[in-house]
Each structure stands twice: as structure tokens, then as C-alpha cells.
Design a protein that fits this description.
Length: about 270
């Protein structure tokens, strides 16, 4: 908005606090004029921390960025690496000497991340802490084998530590007529159109209204909710497995809490 020429800046962007789809990374890159072939000119890096445990538990590298962006565009590669997923997970490094990571499943549900912190200096060394994040451990050797299978050994990270695939929050979706739609799917599609994504704050709310999928989207200030704009969002979000009724709300009409209060994350599902 201030007219900065980002192509003349070397900008490294580190993001965290919530699950990030590759479409959002690409959206940030479109704003910053990121040159994906020249990482020295700027990288957009994902991290994950949990305030009770550590600021940065997991993090991206140049290799994992390239791997995930490739998987996001190649369904066979994505399935071999992550299994059957609805949205391409984040692929992040973690350090087993800092945190012992397990995965557990409840009632045949998706695997959840369970942490035991190994730093003796911690005041509260939490043990077997379930973060309710859907995730799976990817060993370095497993990753090496998959990359060899797909002739992408050039992407093998130099950092020889295990990795974790983070698929978002447990119970992040909404179920209508036995069909589940997750907020990760919505976010992936929402940011796939940069022009439309730029009209929103990124906040949305998923609702089940009498077995009908309703998706409320908050627009930026001074962006009017015109019928033409609603039609564009309707066409874009029609790519979801279950087509929603799209409701565009002005900045001040959006009723869900707009900030994290450190007791609960932003509410995407009502």
C-alpha cells in the first residue's frame, strides 16, 4: 500500500503460529517478488512452535521448501511422501536431542504429535504432551528413498535429522452428510487465486447450517462485497470437494474473534 518496490529488497519472511499451505507461501512470494531460483534474494520459511514447549520446535530449510513445493504440484510424489492427505502437509526438520516426538492415534483417527521435552533446564519439562496437531515422522532414510524413487536426490537435505509432516490441527474441519472438509483445504484453495486472496484478511468461518456448508469470509477494509466478487469467490471455492455457500462479510460485519487470546487459537469452525 505504501508503494515499496519489493523487487529491490532482500526480504526473508519467517512465518509460524498456524498451518501454512504452499499457495499462501506463493501468495507472499507474489507480493515480495520472491525469486524462487535465487534464495539469497529472499526466502519464505515456515516454523512451528508451541508456547508451552519451545518457540521453534520445527523449521523449514531450502531443501524442504523445494520438496514440499514439488509435492504440492505432483499428486503421486505427495502420496508417496505423505500418504493419502487432503492438503499437502508442511515438511519440517526437528531435533530429537531437544524433543522426543511420538505419534498416537485415537479411535482410528489421524496420528497426533506427542512431545517429551529433553532440556533439563526447563522449569516444567512436559512429558508426552499432546499438541493436537496432525503429523507423522519422516525419517531421513525414508525421505532419501522416496527422493531416489522420483529421481529427485538433488533435493536431499544436507541437515541429517528426522523430519515431521504437519497436516494441520486435529478436528479442524466440518462434516456434512458424512463428508469432511478441513480448514487446511479451504485455506489452500483460498490463496490459490492471488487477486482474490488480496481482497480478504485471510479469516474465514466454516458452518454447518442444517447439513449445508456455509463459508463466511472476511473482506479487507474498504473492499465492498459486490455480487461480482461473490461470484468469483463462489467459482474459486467450488473446487473444494464439497461446494460451499459463500458469504462475503465486510471487515466489521465478521463476528468471530479476530485475535488469538493465548487460551485458544482462532476459531475457523462454528
Amino acid at each position: 500500500e505504501q508503494g515499496i518496490d519489493w523487487s529491490k529488497q532482500n526480504v526473508h519472511l519467517v512465518v509460524g503460529a498456524d498451518w501454512v499451505p504452499e499457495s499462501l507461501r506463493s501468495y507472499f512470494g507474489s507480493i515480495l517478488n520472491t525469486d524462487w531460483g535465487r534464495p539469497e534474494r529472499g526466502l519464505i520459511v515456515c516454523t512451528m512452535g508451541i508456547c508451552e514447549l519451545d518457540t521453534v520446535l520445527f523449521h523449514d530449510s531450502l531443501s524442504t521448501i523445494k520438496i514440499r513445493r514439488s509435492a504440492d504440484q505432483d499428486s503421486v510424489f505427495c502420496r508417496d511422501l505423505f500418504g493419502d492427505v487432503k492438503a499437502c502437509p508442511e515438511l519440517l526438520h526437528y531435533y530429537p536431542h531437544k524433543s522426543f516426538l511420538e505419534t498416537i492415534s485415537e479411535n482410528n483417527g489421524p496420528p497426533q504429535c506427542v512431545f517429551s521435552m529433553l532440556d533439563k533446564s526447563r522449569v516444567i519439562p512436559l512429558m508426552r504432551y499432546n499438541s493436537k496437531d496432525v503429523g507423522g515422522i519422516v525419517s531421513y532414510n525414508k525421505l532419501k528413498g522416496i527422493l531416489e524413487k522420483h529421481n529427485r536426490s538433488d533435493l536431499l537435505p544436507d541437515l541429517k535429522v528426522p523430519l515431521v509432516a504437519i497436516g494441520g490441527r486435529l478436528k479442524s474441519g466440518i462434516t456434512i452428510n458424512d463428508q469432511n472438509i478441513t480448514q487446511e483445504e479451504v485455506r489452500s484453495v483460498l490463496y490459490s487465486d492471488f487477486a482474490l486472496a488480496g481482497k480478504t484478511t485471510g479469516y474465514f468461518l466454516m458452518k454447518n447450517e442444517h447439513n449445508h456448508f456455509v463459508l463466511e469470509i472476511q473482506l479487507k477494509e474498504k473492499v465492498p462485497a459486490t455480487p461480482e466478487l461473490r461470484e468469483k469467490f463462489h467459482n474459486l471455492l467450488g473446487r473444494l470437494p464439497l461446494e460451499p455457500e459463500v458469504k462475503l462479510l465486510s471487515f466489521y460485519e465478521f463476528t468471530s474473534p479476530l485475535v488469538i487470546n493465548y487460551e485458544r487459537k482462532f476459531r475457523h469452525v462454528f
